[in-house]
Structure formats: structure tokens, C-alpha cells
Design a protein that fits this description.
The protein starts with 6 loop residues before the first strand and ends in a 7-residue tail after the last strand. The strands form 4 sheets. Strands 6, 9, 10, 11, 12, 13, 14, 15 and 16 form a 9-stranded parallel β-sheet that branches. Strands 1, 2, 3, 4, 5, 20, 21 and 22 form an 8-stranded mixed β-sheet that branches. It is built from 8 helices and 22 strands. It is globular. With about 400 residues, the chain is of the alpha/beta class. Helix 1 packs across helix 2 and helix 7 crosses helix 8.
Length: about 400
């Protein structure tokens, strides 16, 4: 872990503020919070203030990954607390300051074990902070299973069935991906929404009309847009057409050039807009490990040239990080303010925590990442604490 002074001054940064990029900016951090932002010569009068001159690197709000299954050999379904802490440290080195461990369809016993580990890691506060949990399924369409294990998919009939999805403490965020066309799907969306869950539509073949009903029931987001959902057709708009047409529905994207072609990413940025898109990694345990064969979710997943494939030949998640997604969108012409929205602001808004996270502004929590001219992480700060510093500025 790095230094945690009472006060910290970041001098001479290019700060990506909510609506503009400001050169030669100084960011003052006190007690884990951004106290003020100034331009020009920085002055601070007080005690116990550390100063870091970042020499023009670009300061972004810390990235938030709402869909990630693991990394560095750790699978969130099988991880213990130290495993999750290792993932948190790795993510911090890639600019991530908050994340939702994402669980695939499994038995109730497996869910309970995973949630117990996540709860322990939430309280340990190491590296990127765990903000809650994302259940990808089990209430999804078996005809759009992707790499998920369809033998664990479920329909919905009574509210008591949700007791099979263990929850974290009250302050944690609970997100779930569902397909509204399953038996009982609309009632499921209503019940989850009433319980305060973030309901996202995915792994779906729902009709446009049914999706309108799901919206009325409380679904406002779409999981890995265009992937594992019925494609756009000129006689059936389906989930893709619905997601594009509704300005009050947000979508997340796997921006790796594999799940979505680079030109499709450009098209979605132009048509949907950066203010309605969130970047995710959808990374699996093989992320950060290189090419090879990995045992994940009870089968062999092969990684070759950055592309995953399960035993059926289907793409099985990604091996990118949020940093890779950020670099991809910047390479496609997205502005730095656009990228800050997609990687931090919009995920924070989706989780309902944008009052304290997701942007660089006075009064916000000091979750920050500095990127150098080559797009490498120069510094990661979580709650005012330096958690990744490759050149050891504070030691």
C-alpha cells in the first residue's frame, strides 16, 4: 500500500473534469476527498501535506468496472478473500478504483460461498474497492447463453426464489442481468426493482414490445450491448433496436475489437452517445495471464492472441482491462471527457453513487487515475490513498 497523508497535492496535471479538459491543474486532496481544484501556481498552507508533481500527465476519475468475472488466475465464483484482494490490487494497477465481482449461473451453495468471500474482501479495503456484486443470470434465455452454463438457468414464479441469490450488506450495490422473456420475467423485473436492485437486460431475445414492458417494470440498462442478444433485423428491431432508440436506456460495451468490431464501436459512440454508454471488461480469470488454456467454469477456455474461446468455440468473456477499453475508445476518436464518462461517470450513475464517485470535482471522493502520454498508469489513488505508484513517488 502507498502513503496516506492527511493532505495531498497533485500538481501540474491535465485534469479531465466533467465537461472540459484543463491543463496545468492542481488537485488538493484532504481526508480522502477532493478539497479543491485550482489552475496555475499551486499554494497550500497547512501541515502534513505531501506534494506530487505529475508533470502534465492526464488525470481521470478512477475507472469503475461493473462487469468482471476475474483476473490474474482468480475466478470470482471460486475465489476466497485473499484471491479477491489480489484482483483488487491488479485492477488498481490498471486504473480501476471500483468494481463489481460478477457471478455466472451456479448452484445456491456456490453463490453463497462467493458472496461470503466478496463480503470479506469488501471490508479489507485493498486496491480497487469492491462496490457490490453483479449476478449475470441465472434468469436469462438459454437460446442466448453465450458462455454461461445453461444447466443453471432458471425461470421465475415467486419472490421467495430470490432468496437463492444471497446479498451483501445494505450499502453494497446489487446488479443483475435478466432476460424479460423467460417465464415470469416481467414480474421478476418488478420484484428486483422494488428491492432496489439494478436490473439490466441481457442474454435476451425479447421483442421490442416486451422490452417496453420491462422498462415500465424498472429495467433501464443493457448488458454487453449487442453481444448475447438477438441481432438487429430490418423486420424486427429487437433488443438492439430498442436499446438504440430509447435515450433513457443506457448500455455497456466490451470495447476489445473482438466482441464488437472497431467500426461498430465507432457507430455506437456516434448513435448512442458517450453519455449513455459504459465501458466494461467482462474479463475472466485468464486476464493478465497471457495466452494459454485455463480451467474456468468447469471447462477449458483457451486464450490466443487476446481472444477467448470455450470448448464449443464461443467467445467466453474477455482478457482486457478497463484500461484497454479506454485506450481502444481513445484510438477511435473519443475525447478524454467522453472516455471519463464511459469509464467512470456513467458506471457511477448506473450504480447510484455518482454523488460521491465518478468525476473529478470538489467534494467528490478522491478516486483518481493518472495516465501518461503512452496511456500507461502513472498513479492510482483510491479514497485519497495511493494504491499504485510504479515509480514510488511517495516512498
Amino acid at each position: 500500500m502507498g502513503s496516506n497523508p492527511q493532505s495531498l497535492l497533485l500538481r501540474n496535471v491535465r485534469a479531465v473534469l466533467p465537461e472540459r479538459l484543463v491543463d496545468a491543474t492542481n488537485v488538493f486532496i484532504e481526508q480522502g476527498t477532493i478539497a479543491r481544484i485550482t489552475e496555475g501556481a499551486a499554494q497550500y498552507r497547512g501541515t502534513d501535506c505531501a506534494t506530487i508533481d505529475l508533470d502534465g500527465v492526464t488525470l481521470f476519475p478512477g475507472f469503475i468496472d461493473v462487469h468482471i468475472h476475474g483476473a490474474v488466475g482468480v475466478d470470482t465464483m471460486a475465489a476466497d478473500q485473499p484471491d479477491l484482494e489480489r484482483v483488487s490490487r491488479f485492477l488498481a494497477s490498471k486504473g480501476v478504483t471500483g468494481w463489481l465481482p460478477t457471478l455466472v449461473p451456479a448452484t445456491t451453495a456456490d453463490y453463497r460461498g462467493a458472496i461470503q468471500a466478496i463480503a470479506g474482501a469488501m471490508s479489507s479495503a485493498t486496491g480497487a474497492r469492491i462496490l457490490g456484486v453483479h449476478y449475470e443470470g441465472p434468469f436469462v434465455n438459454s437460446h442466448q447463453c453465450g458462455a454461461l452454463r445453461s444447466q443453471f438457468f432458471r425461470s421465475f414464479s415467486t419472490a421467495t426464489e430470490l432468496d437463492d441469490l444471497p446479498v451483501l450488506r445494505q450499502a453494497a450495490r446489487h446488479m443483475i442481468t435478466v432476460a424479460p422473456e423467460i417465464d415470469g420475467g416481467l414480474e421478476l423485473v418488478r420484484e428486483l426493482h422494488a428491492r432496489g436492485w439494478i436490473v439490466s437486460i441481457g442474454h435476451t431475445r425479447a421483442s421490442f414490445e416486451l422490452l417496453e414492458e420491462a422498462y415500465a417494470a424498472g429495467a433501464r440498462h443493457m448488458t454487453h450491448f449487442m453481444n448475447a442478444m438477438a441481432p438487429l433485423h430490418h423486420r424486427s428491431a429487437g433488443p438492439v433496436g430498442w436499446g438504440l432508440l430509447r435515450d433513457d436506456v443506457t448500455c455497456d460495451l466490451i470495447a476489445d475489437g473482438i466482441h464488437l468490431d472497431r467500426e461498430m464501436l465507432r457507430l455506437l459512440l456516434k448513435s448512442k452517445g458517450a453519455d449513455r454508454l459504459s465501458l466494461i471488461s467482462d474479463a475472466v480469470a485468464a486476464a493478465g495471464m497471457g495466452d494459454g488454456d485455463y480451467e474456468i467454469w468447469g471447462e477449458t477456455i483457451t486464450v490466443k492472441d487476446g481472444r477467448t474461446a470455450n470448448e464449443r468455440g464461443a467467445i467466453a468473456g474477455s482478457v482486457i482491462t478497463m484500461l484497454d477499453a479506454v485506450r481502444m475508445m481513445l484510438s477511435l476518436g473519443a475525447t478524454e471527457t467522453d472516455v471519463a464518462m464511459m469509464a467512470a461517470g456513467n458506471p457511477a450513475k448506473l450504480l447510484g453513487i455518482d454523488d460521491e464517485r465518478g468525476s473529478i470535482a470538489a467534494g467528490k471522493r478522491a478516486d483518481l487515475v493518472a495516465l501518461d502520454a503512452k496511456g500507461n498508469v502513472a498513479l492510482t489513488i483510491v479514497g485519497g490513498e495511493i494504491v499504485f505508484d510504479p515509480v514510488k513517488r511517495m516512498e
